[in-house]
Design brief:
By secondary structure, this protein is mostly helical. The protein contains three helices and two strands. The protein has helices spanning 35-61, 65-90, 93-118, and strands at 4-10, 16-22. A two-stranded antiparallel sheet has the order 1-2. Strand 1 (4-10) and strand 2 form a beta hairpin. Helix 1 (35-61) runs antiparallel to helix 2 (65-90). One of its GO terms (cellular component) is Golgi membrane.
């Protein structure tokens, strides 16, 4: 739907390898999904783990331990799904780290430049 996929494969040595892929879109290429569909996908992907966490607190505070086990599995599986798609969208961890560092650096510079201009 949004051009992302991830999976796990095991090589001949028995080592597990996770693969995260994102479709590269060319300018000439026609998009298969609209912007609205993409927003719906990401909204659903983010709200499901939030709902499971709410259910987990509900089961915890009502002392329904049988349901807490089910809800915990829901949180873990939905969280893994969200993590996988975010890794596909953003890329590998070093890319995620450099992106966060760049963003924080820009915010720091913007904040300091504003302070210098005010003074």
């Amino acid at each position: 739907m949004v051009g992302l996929r991830w999976w796990n494969h095991i090589d001949d040595d028995g080592k597990s390898h996770w693969v995260f892929e994102a479709r590269k879109e060319l300018k000439q290429e026609k998009r298969t999904s609209s912007e609205a569909e993409s927003r719906i996908f990401w909204l659903g992907l983010i709200t499901c783990p939030i709902m499971w966490v709410i259910f987990a607190f509900s089961a915890l505070f009502s002392f329904k331990l049988k349901w807490l086990a089910v809800v915990t599995m829901g949180v873990v599986l939905q969280g893994a799904n969200l993590y996988g798609y975010i890794r596909c969208k953003v890329g590998n961890r070093s890319n995620l780290t450099s992106m966060a560092t760049t963003y924080l650096g820009k915010q720091f510079l913007k904040h300091n430049i504003k302070d210098d201009q005010i003074s």
